[in-house]
Amino acid sequence: MLNMIRMELFRMFKTKSLYVIWTIFAVLMIVTTALTAGEMDAYSLEDRQQNYEYAMEEQESGQVNLGMDVTPPTKPGEQVSVFDMFFANIKGKAVAVFMIIFTILYSTADVTSGFVKNIAGQVKNRGLIVCAKAVCLFLYTVLTMMLFFIVQAVANKLFFHEVILGDKRAFALYFLLQTILHFALLMIVMCIALVIRNNVVSIVIGICLCMNALIIFYSFIDRMLAKVGLENFHMINYTVSGKITLLGTEITSEMAVTSLLVGFAFVAAAVCLGSFVFKKRDI
């Protein structure tokens, strides 16, 4: 198992798309911060108050809208913190989209190139190859989130002229939970890519998850369950993409525990299903 992990790590860090996607991602975060700074400079105090109320209403309502939106929850008169921009970009799924694209390219690269055939014959349990990929993608998730934090801090210094982290304890908890939830999302996408074996379709499905395109389906499930008496049940509260969007800046113990349970449950299910399919399929 350790040899497979080392092999997958070597392959991942030798993949050119890793550095290309990281570079594009970093540039986009800097551009997003520049645009946000330009907008906020043009806003009056009243406009900033409206933006703040809009951002807080979204958090409190627990509703998820279709599409992507980047609105930092900065109080009027206060400087935009790194936490504010980090939260806004995470909630807007800008980070998740780039991570999904790399995950699909990395997960299927050895299958499409035929390299995996040489390895599979030397491994008793081919499902362990999927587990090794999962370990590498966890490291990738952590590194990407750390890169995002560093780039965002630099961007704040460039365009807001100072680096204010915000509530450090809340930021650390939010960072941890979002790292786990994003890893769970990548496991789901990896499983989809291994089952479908079509990069284009897998990327489209992954982006649809980021764009909250399934909220129509979730609403249908909610209505069906309401008819049998489960009126307060909301499907999106128990999905990874839903948790990524709904997790606010003020995290209660219940929200933290629920996010962890949802994240770990989907990681386990996706890895098990991906391993089973990979083990049974003729490669």
Characterization of the model:
- There is one protein chain.
- This protein has 283 residues and is an all-alpha fold.
- It has one domain.
- Helix content is 76%, strand content 0%.
- The protein contains twelve helices and no strands.
- It has helices at 2-13, 16-42, 45-61, 82-91, 94-113, 115-120, 127-159, 168-196, 199-210, 215-227, 240-246, 253-280.
- The longest helix is centred in the middle third of the chain and has 33 residues, at 127-159.
- The protein is globular.
- 34% of the residues are buried.
- It comes from [Ruminococcus] torques ATCC 27756.
- This is ABC-2 type transporter.
- Keywords: Membrane, Transmembrane, Transmembrane helix.
- The chain crosses the membrane at residues 94-116, 128-151, 171-196, 203-221, 255-278.
